[in-house]
């Protein structure tokens, strides 16, 4: 694996019974870039995310990842160790502790960095106090980065949906990831909130140096923040390249809009009852 590659997926396939959800998918994610998976619903994008997160195990294929101690076979790692390797994830359906505050949710994201032992935690010894200070310092940095100061002590259950999406992003950042997986970060957001999300993704990439792998449907957001794009349909790769190249690829256009004949069939025939009544 080349030095500039952070994650490399090779010939990934996943079969659920008789359904082939992902079929021979390969791609590389370079360090420091925003790499986006696009495609219609059911294309297999989230399944690929679940393979990287180790929620699923591929039927065939492998994933290599440049971790803190060198390159390793990610598909050989147990799911509970993925966060500790520097991979964090957000979900399309928000997964937060609703009856905890924003700050407490962010502190939970620091659990992979705790180095104090049981007895130190039990008696709140010096090592535990130092770990607590470091965790709060990092959480406050993320709160400031994402403009969450006003919501720091608010219960998540009382927050608007758009703010919850940002809190989930903040909790992921508190793990100090090398690779950040964003599963439809603009889902459910209005235009203004989506613009803010684009701004934060760019800050995460450029200011924090975090590599971002994203699944997204909003093509305006994709075009604005992505360095490279991979288009999928029915579990297979359609095209890859710059956002502009992929969006104008004939196979991608057909997957989203259908063929010219499909679009023509949507037109009302001349002399239809609708047109006669309008006349």
TrEMBL record:
<dbReference type="InterPro" id="IPR027417">
    <property type="entry name" value="P-loop_NTPase"/>
</dbReference>
<dbReference type="InterPro" id="IPR003593">
    <property type="entry name" value="AAA+_ATPase"/>
</dbReference>
<keyword id="KW-0547">Nucleotide-binding</keyword>
<dbReference type="InterPro" id="IPR032823">
    <property type="entry name" value="BCA_ABC_TP_C"/>
</dbReference>
<dbReference type="InterPro" id="IPR003439">
    <property type="entry name" value="ABC_transporter-like_ATP-bd"/>
</dbReference>
<feature type="domain" description="ABC transporter">
    <location>
        <begin position="7"/>
        <end position="259"/>
    </location>
</feature>
<dbReference type="Pfam" id="PF00005">
    <property type="entry name" value="ABC_tran"/>
</dbReference>
<dbReference type="GO" id="GO:0005524">
    <property type="term" value="F:ATP binding"/>
</dbReference>
<keyword id="KW-1003">Cell membrane</keyword>
<keyword id="KW-0472">Membrane</keyword>
<protein>
    <submittedName>
        <fullName>ABC transporter ATP-binding protein</fullName>
    </submittedName>
</protein>
<keyword id="KW-0067">ATP-binding</keyword>
<keyword id="KW-0813">Transport</keyword>
<dbReference type="InterPro" id="IPR051120">
    <property type="entry name" value="ABC_AA/LPS_Transport"/>
</dbReference>
<dbReference type="Pfam" id="PF12399">
    <property type="entry name" value="BCA_ABC_TP_C"/>
</dbReference>
């Amino acid at each position: 694996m080349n030095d500039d590659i952070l994650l490399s997926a090779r010939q990934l396939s996943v079969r659920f019974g008789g359904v082939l959800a992902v079929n021979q998918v390969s791609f590389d994610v370079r360090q420091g870039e925003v790499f986006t998976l696009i495609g219609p619903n059911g294309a297999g994008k989230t399944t690929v995310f679940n393979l990287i997160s180790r929620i699923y195990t591929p039927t065939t294929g492998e994933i290599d990842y440049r971790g803190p101690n060198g390159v390793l076979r990610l598909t050989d790692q147990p799911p509970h160790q993925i966060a500790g390797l520097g991979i964090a994830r957000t979900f399309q359906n928000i997964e937060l502790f609703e009856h905890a505050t924003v700050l407490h949710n962010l502190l939970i994201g620091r659990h992979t960095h705790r180095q104090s032992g049981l007895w130190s935690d039990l008696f709140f010894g010096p090592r535990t106090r130092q770990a607590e200070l470091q965790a709060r310092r990092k959480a406050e940095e993320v709160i400031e980065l994402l403009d969450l100061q006003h919501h720091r002590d608010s219960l998540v259950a009382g927050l608007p949906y758009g703010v919850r999406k940002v809190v989930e992003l903040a909790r992921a950042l508190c793990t100090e990831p090398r690779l950040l997986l964003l599963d439809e970060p603009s889902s459910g957001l209005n235009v203004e909130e989506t613009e803010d999300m684009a701004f934060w993704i760019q800050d995460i990439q450029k200011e924090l140096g975090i590599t971002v792998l994203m699944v997204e449907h909003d093509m305006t957001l994709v075009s604005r923040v992505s360095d490279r794009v991979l288009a999928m349909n029915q579990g297979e790769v359609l095209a890859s390249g710059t956002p502009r190249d992929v969006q104008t690829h004939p196979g991608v256009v057909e997957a989203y809009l259908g063929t010219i004949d499909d679009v023509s069939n949507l037109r009302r025939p001349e002399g239809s009852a609708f047109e006669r009544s309008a006349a």
